[in-house]
Amino acid sequence: MPPRLRPTRLEYVVDGVRLRTQLSAAALEASGDDAAQRKAALEILKAALFRGRMIAKERLENGAGGIETARLISGVTDEVITALWDFTTVHVFRARNPTEGERLALMAVGGYGRGTLAPFSDIDLLFVRPYKQTAHAESVIEYMLYALWDLGFKVGHASRTIEECIKLSREDFTIRTSILEARRLAGDQKLADELIRRFQNEVVKGTGAEFVAAKLRERDERHARAGASRYMVEPNIKEGKGGLRDLNTLFWIAQYLHPGQSIEKVMQLEMFERREVRAFIQAFDFLWAVRAHLHFTTGRPEERLTFDLQPELARRMGYGDRADNPAVERFMRRYFLIAKEVGALTRVFAAKLEAERVKVAPKGISRLLPARRPKRKPLDEPGFHEISGRLNIDSPEIFEHDPVNLLRMFKIADERNLDLHPDAFTAATRSLPLITSAVRRDRHASKVFVSILAHGRDPQRTLTLMTEAGVLGRYLPEFGRIVAQMQFNMYHSYTVDEHTLRAVGVIADIAAGRFAEDHPLSTAIMPLIADREALYLAMLLHDTGKGGAGGQEKAGARAARSACERLGLERSKIELVAWLVEHHLVMSDYAQKRDISDPRTVTDFAQIVETPERLRLLLVLTTADIRAVGPGVWNGWKGQLMRELYGATEAVFRGGRGSDSAAALRRYHENLAYDARVRVGKADPASEAWADAMEDAYFSAFTDDEVLAHAALSRRAGNGAAAEGRVRADRNAAEVVVAAIDRQRLFVDLAAAITGAGANVVGARVFTSRAGQALDVFYVQDVTGQPYGADNARSLTRLIESLEAAARGEPVQREARRSADLGRAAAFSITPAVMLDNEASETSTVVEASGRDRPGLLAALARTIADAGLSILSAHIDGYGARAVDAFYVTGPDGGKLADARRGNALKAALLAALTDADQDQGRNANLQRARASVAR
Predict the structure, then answer these.
(1) Given 3-state DSSP classes, what are the helix, strand and coil percentages for the chain, each rounded to the nearest 5?
(2) Residues 6+ apart with CB under 8 A from 397
(3) Distant-in-sequence, close-in-space partners of 711: CB < 8 Å, separation ≥ 6
(4) Which helix (H) or strand (E) holds 604?
(5) Alpha carbons within 13 A on the beta-carbon side of 681
(6) Which of 201-205, 346-350, 548-552, 806-810 has the weakest average pLDDT?
(7) Most buried residue, 138, 156, 190, 535, by most Cβ within 10 Å?
(8) Hey, is 294 helix, strand or coil?
């Protein structure tokens, strides 16, 4: 990082005296020509403003602090606005002997009033007049505002009397907060002083509790709008949880409760330790630096740290790559640690307010303390008591006496469903050094911890509190290493630790039956799991290997084994947890990237899993892991694939250890198919012949109603083609089914038709009957990730018509390829890869291609495979943010595997060329820094 620059003096950046001299000279030179006067003044002011901003930008890029930059920009803005005021009131609308009614004061309010300003922030101005508006005041205000707009400012403004300011402040907390930070810029000093005096006496005095409650309620609502987690990987640095607005809320409360004292004075109270004061200043400085860089980088008031901006900001702030730790991930981890620190500081501040009996921390976080002093309710736990529905400690000495109490406190709060008192939280944070290696190996501590994790009422909430306090990362260093860790890809919505804790919460919800509709199989098998502690431990530790040597899975298994040994668990449990961590991605890989109807897929998977107990554990673990990645990642399509794989593997295990796995699987599919054919024949005799011709594996993928619908569609197709579609909200996609006579390049033509309609394939199933009729099922979304046709039924109808035409072999109407604007995805550098596997299937070659996702990628890959003379038997589509992973089961012209190495290499080269085509155009973000996309999942 660049060395820190010393603050500069404002007059070295913008000389106010010289600026006013230039304006006066320009006014005299163009005397009598109002338009020329105004034009000359604006040019002078624009030049001063531009110079000030450019100096601030240059200093920021060379190591100046964020607060210094914000104050410098505010100072430059002050000079420009006050110089404009002087020019307006002296040279344009001069009142040589102003009457009482012509008095006017210009005040900065809101964030600008605080004296800190981001490069492209709005400026809030208040024109204060003694009573009703006069023609002179109106002219001055109008001239000023038009000039400021012409200078490029976005101005929030109001013109009010003191009486109006007082009245509105009482009614509206937003106005009250803006005037709380008011400072005079220019004009009548007495008017400005009178407003501040009356505001303090008539509005602020005696209303502290009311203001605190309103500000905290406002904060909660803001968090709900911006995203309740401070660990969302594209955070809003101003409005998000742990951002600047949270720190500003502390400023406002401090100013309100301690009028006349600066925040620096308030922070020096004995309630705050020196470390906490330093952390507060560092957090504020870092966040302001990030915000200033964001504005300068985008040239607009951008407050969201999106993926396409993160690598560029990491570069500008001096972060570099270190081994396997990319610069962008180092920068973002710093951001999330700061956000975590802001949360801790907020709790310390809440403790101070509690001591002053101003507020209570809620179940909503903003109800007020009763007038009388709340009573302490003793508990049967030595050293702890309940107060106002929250758990508190008698004294921080209970942690010194027995450090296990640092864990026990959270267990008690969970068992009794109590919030944690800010005093207790603060004391825990300050007592972290007491958690030593001896405490980590203490059997009592281990028992308390495992009880919280695997047997607690709400493990996600409790573990989140422990993480916020720093206790979890201190007690479990393996977890501590992933706290605030971010993976630079578009797949994950949260940091690694937040994702992990959410996944633990999903398991708890499955165990409680709250996800019976979304996850029926996981809910049904949860009572059959013999070792729930192993399941919860594996979930907590499953991502601890990210960034580790040897790959995520191997490093994670090592970390899990080390953590479990330190916890003193029995050897069998240690090995089970380590196995689950090492294989936590296996089930999703086999379900989503392989053909479950191929016996080799299931037998290979069964050989890895080995036991029904591991299969049950892996299903619940995988379900929770995927669901906790982010909104919309889990859907019914993935659930169906997982259930199919689970059912087929369970059938292999039921066949017995010594039995032939392929034979057991064949019997499983035969039995399912036989029962389904009988039911279909009874329901619709006309469908019986079609059902008899379909392959056995088909019936494990669809319900009886779906089978009957497919049979009717196939009869309608006859020797031609037919298609139908419907929106499937449970799968967050439209399901489109095509029945047609099978032929070469059928799948290619269908995929091209889907691309031509502007749809994106997120899943596909391909079946061929013994009568030579193909049944292809596609799950498609629109460009926004919503089910295709959900908002426009006509578009789904047009897609069906296009698919029918494509299935008949008619030319597909393709849209002209437009230059793609990759948007946020442009920040990711994605290396394409192609793998050919002749061992994954007995009859086919598996071709797996991964690279940057784009509309039409599936069609391009399928066309390339068909051009190589290969037939596609099945296709399996998966994606991880900006990276697509598509797998195809293919055979050569002779119906066998692709065994010729030369043809295999040619296919690889052609597929890599198709994948690379997606990365050629970077759209509007080509000038920004890029970074390698994380492949960790």
Answers:
(1) 55, 10, 30
(2) none
(3) 680, 684, 686, 687, 690, 691
(4) helix 599-609
(5) 11
(6) 346-350
(7) 535
(8) helix
153, pLDDT greater than 50: yes
Instruction: Tally Cβ neighbours within 10 Å of residue 792.
Output: 11
| Cα gap 694→773, rounded to integer Å | 9
pLDDT per residue as tens digits for the range 624-635 = 999 999 887 888
Question: 877: which DSSP letter?
Answer: E
Q: What pLDDT, on a 0 to 100 scale, did the predictor assign at position 265?
A: 66
Q: Left if phi > 0, otherwise alpha if psi is -120 to 50, otherwise beta: which for 369?
A: beta
Query: Rounded distance, CA 759 to CA 858, Å?
Result: 11
Rounded distance between C-alpha atoms, residue 519 and residue 219, angstroms: 34
DSSP string, 82-117: HHHHHHIIIIIS--SS--GGG--EEEEEHHHHTT--
Question: Token pair 């999703």 is at which residue?
Answer: 588
Closest by CA to 740, choosing from 706, 764, 766, is 766
Length of the chain: 937
pLDDT digits (tens, 9 = 90+) for 66-83: 999 999 999 999 999 999
Per-residue CA distances from 413 to 391, 393, 408, 872 (Å): 6, 11, 9, 58
- Relative orientation angle of helices 327-355 and 422-430, to the nearest 10 degrees: 130
How many angstroms separate the CA atoms of 672 and 663, rounded? 14
End-to-end CA distance of the chain: 30
Kindly tell me the burial class for residue 20, based on how many C-beta atoms sit within 10 Å of its own C-beta (0-12, 13-18, 19 or more): middle
Residue 923 has pLDDT above 50, yes or no: no
Tens of pLDDT, residue by residue over 243-295, are 898 888 888 888 888 776 666 666 665 556 777 778 888 899 999 999 999 99
**What is the pairing mode between strands 419-420 and 390-393?**
parallel
Phi/psi for 724 (5° steps) reads -150, 160
Provide the percentage of residues in the chain whose pLDDT is more than 70.
90
Q: What is the 3-state secondary structure (H, E, C) of 487-528?
A: CCCCCCCECHHHHHHHHHHHHHHHHCCCCCCCCHHHHHHHHH
φ, ψ (nearest 5 deg) of residue 155: -110, 125
Helix 244-257 with 208-226: angle, nearest 10 deg:
180
In one-letter notation, the amino acid at residue 312 is E
Which tokens is 423 given? Answer: 């005093």
Candidates 5, 123, 127, 23; CA nearest to 69 is 5
**Helix intervals (H) in 402-458:** 405-415, 422-430, 437-440, 443-455
Collect all residues with Cβ–Cβ distance below 8 Å to 133 and sequence separation of at least 6: 159
Please report how many Cα atoms fall inside a 13 Å half-sphere around the Cα of residue 927, on the Cβ side.
3
pLDDT at 474: 97
Rounded Cα distance between 469 and 471, Å, is 5
- Residue 509, C-beta contacts closer than 8 angstroms, at least 6 positions apart: 515
Please tell me which of 21-25, 218-222, 637-641 the model is most confident about, judged by mean pLDDT.
21-25
- In 3D space, the residue among 182, 199, 193, 200 whose CA is nearest the CA of residue 259 turns out to be 200
Per residue in 865-915, pLDDT (tens digit) is 999 999 888 888 888 777 889 999 999 988 889 988 999 999 999 999 998
Please tell me the distance from the alpha carbon of residue 908 to that of residue 395, in angstroms, as a whole number. 68
CA angle 443, 446, 448 (to 5 degrees): 115
Residue 774: name the closest of 665, 872, 846, 884 by CA. 872
- Rounded Cα distance, 893 and 870, in Å: 6
With beta carbons less than 8 A apart as the criterion, state whether 840 and 604 touch. yes
Helix (H, G, I), strand (E, B) or coil at 920: coil
The Cα–Cα gap between 448 and 459 comes to 12
Per-chain mean pLDDT for the chain: 87
**What is d(CA 261, CA 98) in angstroms, rounded to the nearest whole number?**
35
Alpha-carbon torsion, ordered 600, 602, 603, 609, to 10 deg: 140
Q: Which residue has the tokens 């005095």?
A: 205
Listed residue (296, 301, 303) closest to 236, CA to CA: 303
